[in-house]
Design goal:
Aminopeptidase; elongated; alpha/beta; Alpha-Beta Plaits; 10 helices; 395 residues
Length: 395
Amino acid sequence: MEIKDKIKQLASEYRSEIIAIRNEIHANPELSFEEYNTSKYVASILNKSNINYESGLLKTGLLASIEGKSTEGKTIALRAELDALPIFEENNVPYKSKNEGIMHACGHDVHMASILGAAKILNEISDEWNGKVKVLFQPGEEKLPGGAAQMIEGGIIEKMDATCMMAHHVMPTIDAGKVGFRAGMYMASADEIFITVKGKGGHAALPKLNIDPIPIAAEIILAMQKITPEDEEIPMVLSIGKVTAAGATNVIPNHVEMEGTFRTMNEDWRAKAHELIEKTCVDIASAHNASCEIEIKKGYPFLQNDVTLTAESKNLAIEYLGADNVEDLELRMTADDFASFSQHMTTCYYRLGIRNESKGITSGVHTPTFDIDEQALETGMGLIAWLVYSQLAKV
């Protein structure tokens, strides 16, 4: 039997087990940097599978290690995330979240389960490849500054000592059984903006006695829409998503608070835009005898896929799944802290389809009705095991 067929066979055999693992994780979600029980559960699966690992990294993180028939050669690293989101689940399923107000609504349960499945497959066929596989189960992907950046600061890249790193992420717009790739720039950096416009409140019927922060805030919002890069090819989003003015029908508030996001795919423009945002806010407020406080929390960098690794992975995916099941991806202004790894290592981050319209599985990530077609788990574990094997078998 060819090794590709062997991997497919193992993925099929492990399907029920991996579905059960995903459902257990889904039913017991934990928030960022609080994934203690999730970490223990992942460790229990690694123990049962006779896979060595180190635990307690950034408190809840784990790093598993699998060796081939020879440890000489490449080391391939894989990443899966441990954390869930503060969302009330609305799905009526047996594996519905037991932790009220917390839900695996971004597919991290899928990533953990499928990567565990891939680890089991690679461990079982370890006499067919050379080198090492490192599997990182990372805390805190959903919360700034991101577990990836913190683990990098703590030396995880040196500890893994990997030739390259790979990860997949669920995609609700792609059918289960399919995947998507994009080489080069793929996802944006993500910064959080907090602005407080301070005026002078009072009776709404006596405007001359007030410095109304509400129209000042409105002017700032409109002015920020004109902040654009000179290079029109640089993708960018600047959006204000929350405005709070605690006045009333006849009360002008003392201040207005605004929150928003800034995203781009160019680090030089990112730094310049931060300066322009601050200058715009301060100048407009000052022109109206008001003041302005601005905080920009720098988040994840933009995600860059290595061109060669991604092209090779896409071709291998076509070989494994067929050309009809491999798609090209468009640029996205969403973000993932895997981007931190992509700024330091050779990486490939691709998309795993989970959609099934006939089953009503169409909800997007970060929604209370998010769910998956379970075929994605078999596809996910088999494909990434094939991608890793194909690189390590060359040596």
